[in-house]
Design brief:
This protein has 10 helices and 8 strands. It is an alpha+beta fold. The chain has a 6-stranded antiparallel β-sheet, with helices on both faces. It has a two-stranded antiparallel sheet with strand order 1-2. Strand 7 and strand 8 form a beta hairpin. Helix 1 crosses helix 3, helix 5 runs antiparallel to helix 10 and helix 6 packs across helix 8. Keywords: DNA-binding, Transcription, Transcription regulation. Pfam families: HTH_IclR, IclR_C. This is IclR family transcriptional regulator. GO terms for molecular function: DNA binding; DNA-binding transcription factor activity.
């Protein structure tokens, strides 16, 4: 850490969280990245897990926990959600469907921003709703660009296959029909930290009767446009 506070336990915990900001890590990887002794890393990580600041993924690696998103949402300072509103509104108006943003937290994905279709049948997903990473177009997007170990673990018992994720990476968007919930279809695209890693999935969802059984054909390019727009806004504002 370049500018330690002088409170050792806090400084060491922040070094652990800073490493996890880059992605999942094993205990050994945390030790190597932080320079902190293995027993101390293990003890601090256990305490952070207790408070839900850190979690474990399916490969038992350490990842950032959901409590961080809850704190950011409560404070109203989450950069992604604060910048996303105009893009979400544009996407809803353009497609006529409810729009959401999801983030991955361990083995779950959480809706961190949402705007609903104003009238008619719609897929209502309030902020804070938690879904499995095993189904849905947003789960596909959040998993598709992860490392090999995360891919292997994420595909276990998933409703989609490695071939599906390869298609997502190739075309830049994902679709699902009845995967998360019967009668519901969705289309998602990756939101990046500028030109960097995927940090979220931008989605639209609604009844299959309206989105059809091939929703990506009609809305894939629009969702990608919105996700790219949000990625550029994040880069510019960063």
């Amino acid at each position: 850490m370049d500018n330690p506070s002088g409170v050792g336990v806090i400084d060491r915990s922040i070094r652990i969280l800073t490493r996890l900001e880059e992605g999942p890590a094993t205990l050994l990887e945390l030790v190597e990245a932080t320079g902190i002794a293995r027993p101390t890393v293990h003890r601090l990580a256990a305490a952070l897990i207790h408070h839900r600041i850190v979690a474990r993924d399916e490969m038992s690696r350490y990842v950032l926990g959901k409590r961080l998103n809850e704190l950011a949402t409560a404070a109203g300072t989450d950069r992604l959600t604060s910048l996303a509103e105009p893009v979400l509104n544009w996407l809803r108006e353009t497609t006529g469907e409810s729009a959401q943003i999801f983030r991955a937290y361990g083995q779950s994905r959480v809706c961190v921003a949402s705007v609903e279709r104003p009238i008619g049948l719609r897929d209502s997903i309030p902020v804070g709703t938690e879904f499995s990473m095993k189904a849905g177009s947003a789960a596909q997007v959040l998993l598709a660009w992860q490392d090999h170990l995360s891919l292997a673990g994420g595909l276990q018992e998933a409703a989609f296959s490695s071939a599906t994720l390869a298609s997502v990476r190739r075309r830049g968007w994902a679709q699902s029909v009845g995967e998360r919930e019967a009668g519901v279809a969705s289309v998602s695209a990756p939101v990046r930290n500028g030109q960097g890693p995927v940090i979220a999935a931008l989605s639209i969802s609604g009844p299959v009767e309206r989105l059809t059984r091939n929703p990506g054909r009609y809305h894939g390019s629009t969702v990608v446009t919105a996700a790219n727009r949000l990625s550029k806004i994040i880069e510019y504002e960063g």
